[in-house]
């Protein structure tokens, strides 16, 4: 998304008093690529009116202003809209490569085509507040992190196993006055609503999207891109500033969590229902919000959003160090089966805070973000703690309204259980086995808006202690050296 800083507008109610009428924008009107994966924005009626054009190449008349390359798609979007159907299609492509460090040097291409279709039940059937959603992914190219890097915090939020797959399939219904309650049921990807830092979504590295702790610790990496899980999510707004999210989902996005979960559920149509459950809850506070009162001579406040959440998975989890008879899994006398533990949980907090707005150019702003997450269950988890921090500068150059510069970092700490197994492996003579500790990366990126429907994003990442300090498979007796990753991402909305 390009509009990753916060914005709002005020309406005068009576002399000297205003109310914030639009609330926080939080990127919801944006069109550019974000981390893991790009969030599609269906065109509005205003978009379609602006994108009307006659003839086969009529869409070219509005290329510099339209948010979509193909505009109204020769009237198709307008016709679908009459029945309450909206359609969005995007292509995110990138070339990334490591010029230092890693198991190998080189560049890889990877890409993601995403399609989403939504049906508004009010327009289609006269039933207020309902939305059907179906989305699909076509993932192509190679995976640089798997090919070259062996890092914990993978370099791109879209790199995955090549596949054409169903992603989300759900129905959402609004209730109560002012739509203060809504319920979503069906196949869902949690990274679209939970644990999200809107400012972090500018970046390319995966961990600015779905965090490191659930990626490493939940079965199959959790129900997040490119996987999803069946479940129900409830959202309530008891006040204008407070939102409560809660959900219950299948404990694993696949029926059989052994092996590569993306291969086990290659088409996205497994709809796993076995195993335990994944419960998650999040409280959000946003200010200013819809209805916030401001006086005419009062400086508009710097927007902010705070999130606090917890998740619990009832599945059984294998011990990182000990086997079923209490011996180290590195011991020659091991049973070969890890000890198991019932349940796992994590706690997280997210902050998005605007720091500065240019009084002469309101679109120009600086915002920061922070997200931390941890779990005390170190015996059953690879990662015990992870964090992301960063800063975004919207419109760093005057006149470049939709450009954003960002610099951020990610940190992941290997659990004491996993590090203990490394020490045991050394003690039992398992060859060169460094003790893993932590991994840190820094990313700098600039998102250039070539047109409302096309963004170009050069990116640089530097990874320190890749894999937490794992051995280099191509160099005996050495750890993988620090990695410098450079590349270019493009995003096109059709």
Question: What is the averaged pLDDT score?
Answer: 88
**Structural class label:** mainly beta
Report low-confidence residues grouped into runs of 5 or more. 1-35
Q: Whole-number radius of gyration?
A: 23 Å
Strand order of the largest sheet: 3-4-5-6-7-8-9-10-12-13-14-15-16-17-18-19
Which range does the strand content fall in?
35-45%
The major pleated sheet works out as:
16 strands, antiparallel, barrel
Number of strands: 19
Helical coverage, percent range: under 10%
Tell me, what's the shape? globular
Order of helices and strands: EEHHEEHEHEEHEEHEEEEEEEHEEE
Query: Can you count the helices?
Result: 7
Task: Please characterize this protein's 3D structure.
By secondary structure, the protein is mainly beta. The chain contains 7 helices and 19 strands. It has a 16-stranded antiparallel beta barrel. Strand 1 and strand 2 (17-20) form a beta hairpin. The radius of gyration is 23 Å and the shape is globular. The model is unreliable at 1-35 (pLDDT under 50).
